[in-house]
Design brief:
single chain; about 170 residues; Four Helix Bundle (Hemerythrin (Met), subunit A); two-stranded antiparallel ribbon
Amino acid sequence: MSTQLFVQQLRFARSEFARCMDGVSEDDGRRHVQTLNCISWMVGHLANQENRYWVLMAQGKTLFPDLNELTGFRKPQSTLSLQEMWATWKTVTHTADEYLDNLTPEKFVTHLAWKGKAMDESVGTMLMRNIYHYWFHIGQATVVRKLLGHTKLPEFVGDMSAAAYHF
């Protein structure tokens, strides 16, 4: 199976995440509902994962050195600017694509290193984890939006013509 099929699926998950967030205001993006993280945090959190995997580890580039402290796994809740987190996400995903566009089947089975130690998961497994992570937060963000009283939210999966499987 083509490595680019998986990259295409990541891009589709990204587009569905953006579609899920369409129409969220800055104020609603910063609102916490009960113990759930705010939507701006989710945007930054997904940017953080891509930044860590495909920018920092894969390319050795440092774009947003404080992003993990703000949006990392098991970090304290933070309330961030939605506009700033979208700008961060766009920069990170654009830079991540420089690596992802050049993935080969040979690279898929290699292991990126962090602090001199190989990661437990292969690049291919990390890519799948990244895709599934988007879908998790699409569901979570939809719940937050419903609890905030938003209506006419996207339903199910959108137009897959750009992500269709071809032999």
